[in-house]
Amino acid sequence: MSKPFPKPNLVPLKFRHIEDETEQKRRVEDLYENLNLRRTVRDYSDKDVPLEIIEKAILTAGTAPSGAHMQPWRFVVVQDAEVKKKIREAAEKEEYESYHGRMSEKWLRRLAPLGTDENKPFLEIAPYLIIVFRINSIEKDGEKEPTYYSQESVGIAVGMLLAALHNAGLATLTHTPSPMRFLQEILGRPKNEVPFVLIPVGYPTEDAKVPDLKRKSLEEIMTII
Length: 225
Hints:
Strand content: 15-25%
Distance between the termini: 48 Å
Shape: globular
Number of domains: 1
Low-confidence stretches: none
Radius of gyration: 20 Å
Largest sheet: 4 strands, antiparallel
Number of helices: 8
CATH superfamily: NADH Oxidase
């Protein structure tokens, strides 16, 4: 006989109402102008970053919506130099294979304007690496259950994490060496935690450079029906 479904525990919504349209427009414009400056950074300073900033940014990411409110994410923060070195060595090994055989000519052509290759010194230089894992299942009372919409849920959380870190004046990069199984092994994570993305975090160097890229216009990314 199956157990009865739990009843919802509903509480009053805490919501900040903004009635003034001018203030609404100012806020959304300020946020856009700030996030429009966000860029993927590969030139990092080794300047220290207070851990409290990283913690608060991760708490912010943890406010993301998730399927069935299962919150299927784990954020592993690496600051130990030896562990960062191991991650760099393993990542560069996989990246070498990708750049010299795994990736198609079309893929490599797309990457060429970014100036990337298999060398990833930022994995050791940046003061923190945040490795985001997707929890694909849970086990309770001897029963295993998948997490629902975990891919989408973790993707939203990562977007919020990047925004929070940028808002704190920090640079980031979304690194996804493929395959990423080595992260699970080096960091000793269980099998139900699947590596999703590796994010170096820190301050850019004073002479940091980024590719001259153009984002799509509003007309190219929005359709009104």
